[in-house]
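Hi F.,

I've been meaning to write this up properly since the lab meeting, where we talked about keeping a consistent format for the predictions we share between groups. The idea is simple: the sequence comes first, exactly as it goes in, then the structure tokens exactly as they come out, then a line or two of notes. No screenshots and no reformatting. I'm using this chain as the first example so we have something concrete to point to.
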Amino acid sequence: MDPGVISPSPELKREPNLAHSLVPIIGTALLIGIGFGVYKVKVEILLVVATILTSLLAAWLGLGWKEIQSGMLQSIHKGMPAMLIVVVVGALIGSWLAAGTIPMLIYYGLGLISPRMFLVTACLATGIVSVLTGTGYGTIGTIGVAFMGIAHGLGVPPGQAAGALVAGAYLGDKVSPFAANANFAVAIARVNIYDHIKHCLWTTVPAFAVGLAIYAAVGLSSQVVAGASLAADDQVRQVLARSFVFSPWLLLPPVVTLLLAVRSLPVMPGMLLSVMVAVVLAVVVQGVPLATALNITVTGFKPATGLALVDTLLAQGGMQAMMNVTLIALCAFAFSGVLQKAGLLGPVLTLLFKFTTTTRRLVAATVGSCLVVELMTGAAFVTILLPTELFAPVYRQAGLAAKNLSRAVGDSGIVGVPLIPWSIAGAFMSGALGVPVLSYAPWAIFCYAGIFFTLLAGFTGITMAARKNEDETQAGS
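Output, unedited:
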């Protein structure tokens, strides 16, 4: 039996059929789509409700409480390594902020801005910030707002500017080791985070490059306002330079993380080593008291730079901040455990196995399911959860690494949510930037270009990795 699959209980008195299987799957999608998307009920309690209702169906099929509980615990146990990494990511973000590493990289990243190439530099700058901070929302709510002010001064059409900013902001949501969405995806797929990121680059780099090329072409053919003010950008950089001591030593934490990832060493020890290095730098370079630096790894970084824009951007990190993602994953694993223990995934998987007889069909079905759930719910977490849980056994059966699945979900699910007007992400981006979703969506090229490249990979087989290890949370899988 595959390590990612939980065997149906021998206590079952009734054999689940396709109708039984579709009830919890479609019911959960509707429950979360309406509850979260319309009434803004927290996903965690909706998953608990879905687990309760699925448990009642499991009881009707003949399972007792001990077997139902056993399914939940087995599923949670299998997902525990990924959840622990999510928690450590919170410590990593907080320590890098306290050390000044992330502020220094943002400072130099913003220095790349070019008035004539506004769309390119805006997309690159928000992309850098989102990868460093792991938050598309935080990037748009801070740097994105500042860039929109610059765009107005330059005479850049609002739809173009907002689209480039959203595209850059969602680069981090897909490939940042700090991003909640990326960590949730690898937790559900049970994949190593750095293997996931490296595998995503095959589709992410060309998709992002296509967007930059179009932005460059548009910028070169457009007119900008002579001597337009870049005051917002300059103000942010001045505050960062005043609030932190910059030094080449601050590059040590990302260098340590990168070297350990490249050498395919265990993820968590490498991340903890990077946290330790960053804490030392926070004390030595920034003059942060040791107790404060250690507490930041738990509670997060709380800057007081004197500029609200910068304080909002840098108020990130801490293990406590990642508990929301961990709780959602915990509830999702419990739901999945009941499904598997009651044999409710079996009939659906049998149908999928008949249809997805080739890699191209499997990838196309993954993309299609992500788009359907995305449009139904407008929620990134749900778009990650349902297709990933449903297709994970199919990828295992096909001998494909789970990172192929997490990549396809990232290309067609995670980055596409801000293009949906009724999604929370779309509402936030639209409200923060002052541009309707349908106006910026065509210009957020990265958010939909990845679909083409992930389908291309599936249809040609290029970059589709074979499954090597039973435990794919280990480095080098």
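Notes:
The mean pLDDT is 85.
The CA atoms of residues 411 and 450 lie 5 Å apart.

If this format works for you, I'll send the rest the same way.

G.
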